[in-house]
Amino acid sequence: MDYGTIRGLFTLLIFALFIVIVIWSYSKKRQSSFDEIANSILDDDLKPAHPNQQSKQETNNNV
Q1: Over the stretch 14-58, which tens digit does the pLDDT of each residue have?
Q2: 3-state SS, one letter per residue, for 17-63
Q3: What span, in angstroms and rounded, lies between the C-alpha atoms of 25 and 19?
Q4: Fewer CB atoms near the end CB (10 Å): N or C, the chain?
């Protein structure tokens, strides 16, 4: 095999990988999971990760 054939096969492999990722990301099975992840950033302001955890401003005793 010459260099051009190897480059062609590599390009075809990368293109196939791209198509697989696009199909995976837009599938209906993944939509609820992606929606939950997208909305999780908004939930961080409503409740702390741990109930006993305080913000850094409240626990800064170095002053």
Answers
A1: 999 999 999 988 888 888 888 888 888 887 665 555 666 555 555
A2: HHHHHHHHHCCHHHHHHHHHHHHHHHHCCCCCCCCCCCCHHHHCCCC
A3: 10
A4: C
